[in-house]
Amino acid sequence: MAYNFKSESEVKEYINNLGIEYRFGCYSEKKPEVCHLLADFLESIKKDFEKAGKVYKTNCDDYKYGKSCLKYGTYSLLGRGSKKADFKIAYDYFEKGCNLDEPDSCLNQGLLLVTKNDKPEVKQDVQKGMRILEKACKYENANACYYLSGMYIVGIKKDNLPGSLTDKGNSDDYQVAKDMTRAFEFALKGCNLGNMYSCANLSQMYAKGEGVEKNQKLADEYKSKALDMQKEVQGRQTLTFQEGLNPT
């Protein structure tokens, strides 16, 4: 049936039929990908976060659908669809998603581990977190590659956050020592995957000869690439329905 999307009544009919289709595919045919779409529908169209969260959770637990694990983990982190946020539940579901090879889940699990916070239920473990971020980068998560590059650029000092580090101190003071060669490798991959900050870092590395042989031509090329990406991001309008929730 062809719908006239200029007609309010036909739009409502289309949306109603879409919900019926997703419910049938999920509950009767037990298709995990359709259950995830149903949860997206409940979230984006119905704005019923509580029901959406329940569907994401069940689809993760029962059908091992990684994207639903990611979404329920994000819901738990934000307290969406529930009375309060729960970092432990969020971490557990990011871990489930990562074990199902969902790159964004690995990114979120890794970031929770490398970040020092006041949540005792998620203990900081930089080494484990970086291993998980490496898995996310391997599975072509551009943000994970970028974060790893940044950690190797500055090093991770003991008992400090990555963002508060300096070059001062002995190598024994660091959990992860500065390594510009590794920083370059991760920045290159991140840039190739479309992370503009990785491209900007590459430009600086080539300009200074850090982690790679100095090359002003390539420095200029990567700077231009980063600026082009920035313009594209600023001008882009995206529709997130059916794409899953981006990590925060």
TrEMBL record:
Record keywords, A-Z: Repeat
Xref: Pfam families: Sel1
GO CC terms: mitochondrial intermembrane space
Leader sequence segment: none
Statement: the UniProt record of this protein carries the keyword GTP-binding: no
InterPro entries from the UniProt entry: HcpB-like, Sel1-like, TPR-like_helical_dom_sf
Stated family: Belongs to the hcp beta-lactamase family.
Protein name as it appears in the record: Cytochrome c oxidase assembly factor 7 homolog
